[in-house]
Amino acid sequence: MTSVISLGGSLIVPEQIGTTFIKEFIALIEALLAADESRKFIIVTGGGSTARRYQEAFFEIDGVRPEAAGQKKAELNDCADWIGIAATRLNAELIRQILRKHCSENVVYDPSEAFDFEGRVLVAAGWKPGFSSDNDAVILARKFGADTVINLSNIEKIYTGDPKRDPSAKPLDSISWREFRAMVGDAWVPGANLPFDPIASKLASESGIKVIFAAGHPIKNLENILLNKAFTGTTIGK
């Protein structure tokens, strides 16, 4: 059994490095590996506040933002993406080194490459501009036969709208890919605060992969997801 977790950077580096959460997360992974010798994990890390701070610094120093850049918009988005990708790779290396006794492979940067998954934990990070690490998680789920991606962040459920702007927005236990993609659109913007990357959503929808969207706290909720017990979160699927 291979479980794929898209581990949001908001949990790894909310502002400072989230050592309390990381310890809880690692302890759960270790316990589940010990309890079931057939279990494997693929963990794909996001960039968190490190990515956002460096991207903001880039735009401030460069002096032009993508929304005002005209023909330079694509170029600036690529620049911001590469900065975010670097942050995901730093976070991935932290997780891999903590779980090093289970990791036979180095951190995966290109999920499309041919490689074996010989250890029990595979850690991956951002690949290239145009999408987030969520998309890498979907690619790896397809590659290694997982039908579900668990997307962990600091938000408990997906809402019908932005609850900060729309007081009538309601939390959802489930939503179809068609409905979800209508909400998030088809375009990726670096640093966008969306529940799941629109590019990853398209690929998951076309591949028949479901996504379980849930908060990383409390860690017991992730344990329930991984053990097929009742959990708090939103399932995105057919």
Describe the structure.
This protein has helices at residues 9-12, 19-35, 48-62, 73-98, 133-143, 177-184, 198-207, 219-226, and strands at residues 2-7, 40-45, 121-124, 148-153, 158-159, 171-172, 174-176, 210-215, 234-237. It contains 8 helices and 9 strands. The chain has 238 residues and is α/β, with parallel strands linked by helices. It has a single domain (2-237), classed as Carbamate kinase, CATH 3.40.1160. The strands form 2 sheets. A 7-stranded mixed beta sheet has the order 3-2-1-4-8-9-7, sandwiched between helices. It has a two-stranded antiparallel sheet with strand order 5-6. The longest helix has 26 residues, at 73-98.
Compile the SSE list and pairings.
Elements: E1 2-7, H1 9-12, H2 19-35, E2 40-45, H3 48-62, H4 73-98, E3 121-124, H5 133-143, E4 148-153, E5 158-159, E6 171-172, E7 174-176, H6 177-184, H7 198-207, E8 210-215, H8 219-226, E9 234-237
Parallel strand pairs: 1-2, 1-4, 2-3, 4-8, 7-9
Antiparallel strand pairs: 5-6, 8-9
Helix pairs in contact: 3-4, 5-7, 6-7
